[in-house]
Design a protein that fits this description.
two-stranded antiparallel sheet; about 5% strand; elongated; BPS1_pln
Length: about 300
């Protein structure tokens, strides 16, 4: 995540936003939010808690943007520059953001459902009611299906990246230039957060082995790495390892019950993360939608 955000920052001139103290309070509030998000979006590892915080932070950011767009000063400035290329670019980008947010929420919901089904199967297995191999296979299959969907979403992020550098300088109108600069930086930060989220959701390499599914040896080896390496894993990595270990023939003396307990602990943590990610994505989607509607209303007058 840090590498991606640094690349974006250099390419698009992401900076600490600073406008005159006489700027409108809405502009200053958005400036503060951008500085806050910009200083954090590449600073932390992409774990579930960080991503949830990032999504809710983005929702707050777009609420500030909506307030800024609804200012009479902003609306008047936008009306004076009607049907310009940068307006179409921003509208196109906002639509892509909505699609990306919706598709990502669907992916999270699908994974949450798979996690809950596996949790239920493991509980029944402990009670001696059924074999769990089929349910584990189903979980891993769902993870593999995510790979193509995430690849499409990452491609969409790259297409949004192409709008940068196409906007003319509007220095003759200070407030409008400030608004456009703020919008562009918001888009950069949004792209960085989504890139981190999609990387978090992206499945580890999975492939069939004999009649079973298992993680490739690289992932299996992760399970026996040092504590330092383990801390670098996100919650999905740890869950993948715990789930796959149930099917793997290990030289260790871990009982099946111990492996199931480990998997259940990780799945419970992951279920909570997915629940929060869903809420964050839903909140962000509403904020993005309101911002787009405000922008469209301004341009329709």
């Amino acid at each position: 995540m840090a590498a991606f955000s640094t690349k974006l920052a250099k390419k698009h001139g992401l900076r600490s936003v600073s406008f005159p103290a006489s700027s409108h309070p809405s502009t200053l509030r958005l400036e503060e939010e951008l500085n806050k998000r910009g200083s954090r979006h590449g600073a932390s590892s992409s774990n579930g808690e960080t991503l949830c915080t990032g999504l809710f932070g983005l929702a707050e950011l777009y609420i500030c943007i909506e307030d800024l767009l609804n200012l009479p000063l902003t609306q008047q400035a936008l009306a004076q520059h009607h049907n310009e290329q940068w307006q179409n670019a921003l509208l196109d980008c906002s639509l892509k953001q909505l699609d990306l947010c919706s598709n990502t929420k669907d992916a999270v919901s699908s994974m949450k459902q798979s996690v809950r089904e596996l949790q239920s199967a493991l509980r029944r297995s402990k009670a001696g009611e059924q074999s769990i191999e089929t349910n584990i296979n189903s979980y891993i299959t769902t993870r593999k299906i995510m790979k193509k969907e995430i690849a499409n979403s990452l491609a969409s992020l790259k297409r949004m990246d192409n709008i940068f550098g196409d906007f003319p300088q509007l220095e003759q109108h200070h407030h409008l230039a400030a608004v456009i600069s703020l919008l562009r930086e918001a888009i950069v930060i949004t792209a960085s957060v989504f890139h981190a989220l999609l990387s978090f959701l992206s499945p580890s390499s999975l492939k069939p082995k004999s009649s079973k599914w298992s993680l490739v040896s690289k992932l299996v080896q992760k399970g026996s790495t040092t504590c330092k390496d383990e801390r670098k894993m996100n919650e999905l990595d740890r869950t993948d390892i715990a789930v796959s270990n149930i099917l793997l023939q290990s030289s260790k003396e871990d009982s099946e019950e111990t492996k199931i307990e480990s998997a259940m602990v990780n799945l419970e943590s992951l279920d909570s993360i997915f629940e929060n990610l869903e809420d964050g994505l839903e909140c962000l989607f509403r904020s993005l939608l309101h911002t787009r509607v405000s922008f469209l209303n301004i341009l329709s007058h």
